Model the fold of this input.
Amino acid sequence: MLPKSLKAVPLPDKDQTDRFTINPELVAEKSYKIVDPDNQSIWGYIAIDNTQRGPGLGGIRMVQNLSLNEIMRLARVMTLKNSAACLPYGGGKAGVSLRSFELTSGQRSELLEKLADCLYELPDYAPAPDMGTNEKDIQIIHNNHSQKLGTEKHSRGGAGRPVENGGVPIDDWGLTAHGLFSSIKVLESLDPKLDLSGSKFVVQGFGNVGAPAALKLQEAGAVLVGASDIHTALWNPNGLDAQALNKIRKEPGGLSNYLLKVDKKFSLEKLDWLLEAPCDILIPSARPDAITARNADRIQCRYILQGANTPSSKPVEYYLHHHRNILSLTDFIVNAGGVIGCAVERLLMMDDSYAEKVKQAGVKTYVENLIDKTISKNVCETYSRLQNNKDFIFRDAAWELALERLNTNEVWL
Ligand code: NAD
Done:
């Protein structure tokens, strides 16, 4: 049963700072639980990690078994991502814990209206699409806020909306995948051991990030040998057809509808086995902690391209780097394509002269060029810091870069 309304109730950070293991600097500026005020049941969480550069920009996640911890970790990644990309935003994240695919479209719209009412009270948070949400969902929130403000021209209510509503549709245009592809192309130019043509790659989570990333890599001559979604995991060392998978990924049953040849097909409880498949590039593109101590010894790739946010933790990445010789390209550097698109959309809405400049180039072309420029520069810079400090892993160098930018007012839009 859907709640009659939803309300954001501030959470005290005392509970977290009282723990011996929490560094106070890692506590979000503000965090909230999303509750049904009628019975205080918890529907989700919101974390606004840092607003030093601007409102906390980050997606809304609608998945099951969501915790405050997941949302806070993701909000921290957004702070680092928006800083590293020199966007005028801090980091934020929101999540509603449910099986969103079980909602009817009417229930979904009703829930989003309630969430929009709740988010309207938090001007420091700027929503965007994330796992389980899409452009149309953000448009519902935007419309709700337009009604409250009496105008459609405002910087509330989120970005990543459909193009026909003046948005930059980050999923429809595959913008995060565009950035992932830029990253791996730049790495190819820096690392003589990487040659994309003929490289074998695996995508965990064939969704709005994983699917377009697979299409781009396949087009560049790499071979998709493994792909998974929440229904199944498929393996074929001679290649899967990314286009065929893309056609069926949104059907009921998703990738289990794939009819072409596979060598192995894993069921729900064995989905993670695909992460251990031999390949050159592994692209985790689903929930946090796909790679942990439980499987770090069995991962067989040479490079990890972090499509997902927090697919592994720093200690695990140390182990992979120093003991397994696996280079893992950090989430907040390589998957920034989506937020760059969102930041462009928000400025298009508010600044007519910027809008004129962007429209002259064509919005999609402008955004893709900006993603290429930003992410290529950041991968190059992080890689060079990594080469200059033998104690660093990629994440350390990325962290150093993001923190430096957090303390500047530089904006790349
Ligand atoms: P999505 O909902 O479109 O796709 C997620 C995919 O993962 C789905 O195919 C789902 O079935 C699959 N999945 C879920 N659990 C799985 C599991 N245990 N094993 C295998 N597959 C599983 O979401 P998305 O927008 O593609 O986001 C994916 C990841 O990328 C998230 O971590 C998100 O934070 C991150 N990300 C997304 C964007 C964006 O632009 N959408 C930007 C940056 C980072």
User: Anything to note?
Assistant: Residues 363-388 form the longest helix (26 residues). Residues 129-132, 170-171, 176, 204-210, 228-230, 254, 271, 285-287, 307-309, 335, 338 surround nicotinamide-adenine-dinucleotide (CB under 6 Å). The CA atoms of residues 28 and 49 lie 4 Å apart.
